[in-house]
Design goal:
152 residues; mainly alpha
Length: 152
């Protein structure tokens, strides 16, 4: 949006382009003209990115004829690490996530003994998540009349 809408340095800084690229005056909030020169797309949700990464992993393993087995937990750990980077909420794009993911897949394909969680530096994160799930299962068994016991 800044590349287009910035009135000092973007495309809209040139009046002739601004008048050609802006939506018509009858286009209200939520309406999208999919045949105009600019199409504003919604951000991908975390679920959509997760599914995209699964499909990319499948395509990569088929293309290079190797076996790739990534659990949902491993993909979630990757997404969590990528999303927790400084400034990720504003600057992270699907292109960057996909580039990093394919880089890891390339390395794993070339080095079959490599471990995904070690490559992304999430082995500790994954162990913590597994431990919390086991504790949650134990705590749900110890319920008394709607109350659960837990530890912090």
């Amino acid at each position: 949006p800044q590349f287009v809408e910035d009135m000092r340095r973007g495309l809209f800084s040139y009046e002739a382009l601004r008048t050609r690229l802006t939506a018509g005056r009858f286009m209200k909030d939520g309406m999208k003209d999919m045949q105009g020169p600019l199409m504003y797309l919604d951000k991908l949700t975390h679920e959509e990115i997760f599914l995209l990464l699964k499909k990319i992993g499948d395509l990569h393993s088929r293309q290079y004829d190797y076996s790739l087995v990534l659990s949902d937990g491993e993909l979630l750990a990757f997404m969590q690490i990528v999303a927790n980077r400084l400034g990720a909420d504003e600057l992270l794009t699907p292109r960057e996530v996909i580039r990093d993911f394919i880089g890891i897949l390339n390395y794993m394909q070339q080095n079959p003994s490599s471990v995904f969680l070690n490559l992304i530096g999430a082995q500790e994160l994954f162990k913590i998540d597994c431990k919390e799930e086991n504790e949650d299962e134990e705590n749900t068994e110890n319920t008394e009349e709607g109350a659960a016991e837990f530890t912090l």
